[in-house]
Amino acid sequence: HLTLSDLRMLAPVIGLLAIGHCTSTLAPAFGTVACANIIKTAEPLFTCAISYLLFRRIFSAPVYLSLVLVVAGVALFSTYDLDFSYLTLAAGMVSNAAYATYSISAKRALQQLPQLTPRSMYAVLTVSGCLALTPLAAVMELCGAGSSRFAVSQSAVSGWRLAGLLIFTGLLQYLSNEIAFCTLSLIHPVTYAVANTLKRSIVVAVSLVFFGQRLPPSGIAGAAMAIVGAMIYSLSSR
Hints:
Blueprint: H1 4-29, H2 33-39, H3 43-55, H4 61-80, H5 86-112, H6 118-143, H7 159-184, H8 189-210, H9 217-236
Helix pairs in contact: 1-2, 1-5, 1-6, 2-5, 2-8, 3-5, 3-8, 4-9, 5-8, 6-7, 8-9
C-alpha cells in the first residue's frame, strides 16, 4: 500500500516518465524513425552527466570517450540525414534528459519503497502518468496541436483501425517498458541507457528496411559511430 507521502515522492518520477514518453513519441512524428532513434543514442551521456550532478558519480576515461563517440555519431547522422528535423532533434534531446533523470530517480524510488516490486512500481508510474496526460491529450486532439505531416495526410489511418493500432501498440509498449524497468532494478542506470542504445540500433535497421529508406555514406558512418561507441562503453564499464 502506498501512502500520500509515497505518492508525493513519486510525483517527480511520474512527471519525468510522462515527459519522456511524450517527447519520444513526438520525435519520429516530425522526422524518420531512424533519425529519432539515432538521436536517442545520446541518452547515456545525459545519464552520466546527471549521475555526476546528483550523486557525484565519476566514471573512467574510456567511458567518457565512448560517449563522446556516441554523440559525434549522432551529430554526423543528424547533419546528413535527408529527413532531418529540428523538432525531432529537440524532442529527442528533451526525451534523453527526461528518461535519464527518470531512470536514476526510479531506481532510487525502488530502493525507498521495498514494499513494491519492479512490476508494481512500473504499473503505478504508468497509470499515474496516463491519468496526468489524458487531459492534455484531449485538449491537443481537439485543437490539433502538435499534428505532424503524417497526421494530416490523406493516407492517415482513422476509425476503428486507428483504435486497434493504438491498443496494439500500447500493449506492446507497456510490455517492452515493463521488461526494461525490471531490468533497471538489476543494473546501473548508465548500463541501462547503453542497452537501450543497442536496442535502438535494431530499431533503426528494421525501420530503414520496412520503410524502404536509404542513408548516404555519411549517415551510415554516423549511425555506426553511435553504435560502436555504445559497445565500447559496455566493454570499458565492466
